[in-house]
User: Which sequence fits this backbone?
């Protein structure tokens, strides 16, 4: 059983996050903050805001990662010496893996091998479950990461726009030259644009996660509830589609067996179909004949021709008269 995100086994995504924070901070300092150093009026407040939000994000991420979101009944059971016998009751359910009664709103996580109270999801980036105990820290971390990366994006946009608008007279170009050497700053701006694209993709992904959780809060449900709801709705849609298809096939089969003509619904009402095709049901259904458009070659399944011999011509004539009558309102 894993206690928190720092318990073994660690995972690759979690280790990646340890490098991403310094990467985003050092990248911003080298590519934006230092070249914009003479413009302290907006560069300094932006830099301080980024640093503070990034450090607070790291703190909340660390808290979310190291808190243990275990189910309190399971925790109590594990800590009891000698181990107490688990008793069920209202608001409880039995976990067959943990072999104890846990809270009704807990779920067993197979990665952490324990029941998590008010389970939201297992976060691969933090390598721990997110539940009632650490959801607040998790959400703060996501919000702050979104904020600081977005602010970085603003800083990068200012630098890149100024670089190209101000041209060779730009104070940024002379600052870059004194910082990193070179003559035209081509290497600098190429690296900056590549970094900007990576940052833009990162901000987009984090924004999706942030707004997803904002929406969950608005709906008052957890990620787990949302996934289950989506899966059930998908299943329902698939079942409905399958039932509809089955019903249509059965109806078609019955009509064929009964020797009835198959006409599409609009046609059955004596309406134009496809602009030119007509199929009109005339009088007594037992004597009903169909009209098949002569040039229709692809609708054989839907429009079965049950006419025989000269009846077709007669029916066509009658159908044409009926449609004409409807058109002229007679
Ligand atoms: Zn369990
Ligand atoms: Zn977990």
Assistant:
């Amino acid at each position: 059983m894993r206690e928190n995100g720092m318990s073994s086994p660690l995972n690759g995504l979690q280790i990646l996050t340890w490098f991403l924070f310094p990467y985003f901070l050092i990248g911003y300092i080298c590519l934006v903050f230092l070249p914009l150093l003479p413009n302290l009026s907006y560069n300094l407040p932006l830099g301080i805001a980024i640093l503070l939000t990034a450090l607070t994000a790291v703190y909340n991420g660390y808290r979310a990662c190291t808190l243990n979101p275990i189910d309190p009944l399971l925790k109590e059971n594990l800590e009891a010496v000698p181990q107490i016998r688990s008793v069920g009751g209202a608001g409880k359910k039995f976990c067959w893996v943990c072999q104890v009664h846990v809270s009704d709103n807990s779920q067993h996580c197979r990665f952490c091998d324990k029941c998590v109270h008010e389970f939201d999801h297992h976060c691969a980036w933090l390598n721990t479950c997110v539940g009632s105990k650490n959801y607040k820290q998790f959400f703060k971390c996501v919000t702050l990461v979104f904020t600081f990366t977005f602010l970085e994006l603003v800083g990068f946009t200012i630098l890149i726009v100024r670089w190209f608008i101000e041209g060779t007279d730009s104070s940024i170009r002379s600052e870059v030259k004194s910082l990193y050497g070179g003559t035209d700053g081509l290497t600098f701006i190429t690296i900056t644009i590549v970094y900007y694209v990576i940052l833009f993709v990162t901000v987009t992904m984090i924004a999706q996660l942030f707004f997803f959780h904002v929406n969950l809060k608005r709906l008052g449900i957890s990620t787990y509830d949302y996934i289950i709801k989506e899966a059930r709705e998908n299943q329902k849609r698939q079942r409905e589609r399958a039932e509809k298809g089955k019903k249509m096939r059965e109806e078609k089969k019955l009509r064929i067996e009964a020797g009835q003509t198959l006409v599409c619904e609009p046609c059955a009402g004596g309406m134009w179909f496809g602009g030119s095709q007509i199929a009109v049901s005339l009088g007594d259904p037992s004597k009903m004949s169909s009209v098949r458009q002569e040039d229709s070659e692809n609708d054989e399944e839907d429009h079965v021709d049950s006419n025989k011999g000269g009846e077709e011509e007669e029916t066509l004539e009658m159908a044409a008269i009926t449609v004409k009558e409807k058109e002229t309102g007679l």
